[in-house]
Amino acid sequence: MPATTSHRSRVLQGDCLEVLAKRDAASIDAVVTDPPYGISMAGMRWDTPRRLDPSRPLGRRSRANPSLAFQGFCTAWGSECLRVLKPGGHLVSFAAPRTAHLLAYGLEAAGFELRDTLMWLQGQGYPHSRQLPGGWGTGLKPAHEPILLARAPLDGSLGHTLSVHGTGGLNIDGCRLPDPGVCDRRTHTRGLSASQPGRWPANVVLSHTSQCTTGRCRSNCPASLLGDRHRFFYCAKASRRERDAGCEQLPRQVVQTFKIGARYKQMADENPVANIHPTVKPIELMRWLVRLVTPQGGLVLDPFAGSGSTGAAAQLEGARFLGIEQDSEYVRIARARIKHWAMIARTEARVSAACTGAARR
């Protein structure tokens, strides 16, 4: 399949298990991905556990328990990611709260070591609940998404892995929260301390609501509810402008809104979009995650590339990117978006180089 126009980025169309099977072992520096959650989200075929089941006979329905089917799927793609990752390479994967444990078990079964679970508190989900008599219901409002952080086995010691492969550690200083008045040197390991001011990156990421402004937050904003804004990384959900950037030449379509009611249906009908992917992650958040686990200039893999947010983030962070996506429409969107952000990255690099040259003179 043809690649994107950027020599630092490729988006291949196909099943990730089949594509990765042809990839050389230990050739990837980091995996950052947003895979299917196995919750049959909005009736999407690609998120149905029985369709994801790797043991399903070709052309037939899986008879496996949905949880076991999804767990097997996670083990299958996790195993391929582990094979192509360099020793000590990290994998970052979004998950759904109710199936994150199945993803975690699948990754461990594949051979990964679970290192942490980050939480993206976005507080902006819409409750998918049946209305029952007496004010009862069947579900809560989704307000966070877990992000699993796992690591491939080291090649001997951590020091040896770092020196030989450039992997095994996290880019702490590169992901600090800017705060000139704070140098967070607290650590549980002797001899290690911060080399620059700023808050140590935490395993909690917060999102402002779409109605927040520069001067004021809404009362239900996760950022304002938790107080001190210097302690956590903040990132809003992807705006429609960000989702569609680079897709101006693609056909616009009406997509199903996840909010219920005639008014929202009318809004969707009146506002067709170019990027039809339902779960677009914000580029700012993806940049932070790519920066956290990818060595300088390293190769980032996203086996479920979707609309290309990881690829766009990799371009902006100066990393190389390999994306795999089986849906042809999403592939087209991903390539257009990555091309757009690659151009912005090159422009930013030229401006930065010019400013550095002027300062030296």
Chain-wise SSE layout:
Blueprint: E1 9-13, H1 16-20, E2 28-33, H2 49-52, H3 66-84, E3 85-94, H4 100-110, E4 113-121, E5 131-132, E6 136-137, E7 144-151, H5 158-165, E8 204-206, H6 222-225, E9 233-234, H7 240-244, H8 262-270, H9 283-293, E10 299-302, H10 309-316, E11 320-325, H11 328-360
Parallel strand pairs: 1-11, 2-3, 2-10, 4-8, 8-9, 10-11
Antiparallel strand pairs: 3-7, 4-7, 5-6
Helix pairs in contact: 3-4, 9-10, 10-11
Describe, in plain words, how this protein is organized in 3D.
Residues 1-5 and 186-195 have low confidence and may be disordered. This protein has 11 helices and 11 strands. The termini are far apart. The protein is α/β, with parallel strands linked by helices and 361 residues long. The strands form 2 sheets. The chain has a 9-stranded mixed sheet with strand order 1-11-10-2-3-7-4-8-9. The longest helix has 33 residues, at 328-360. It has one domain (9-243, 280-360): 3-Layer(aba) Sandwich (Rossmann fold), CATH 3.40.50.
How many structural domains are formed by the residues?
Answer: 1
Q: Mean pLDDT, nearest integer?
A: 84
The major β-sheet equals: 9 strands, mixed
Structural class: alpha/beta
**Poorly predicted tracts of residues:** 1-5, 186-195
The appropriate CATH architecture is 3-Layer(aba) Sandwich
* Percent in strands: 15-25%
N/C terminus separation: 46 Å
Specify the CATH homologous superfamily: Vaccinia Virus protein VP39
Q: What's the total count of β strands?
A: 11
Spatial sequence of strands, sheet with the most strands? 1-11-10-2-3-7-4-8-9
Give the count of helical stretches: 11
Compute the gyration radius: what is it? 21 Å
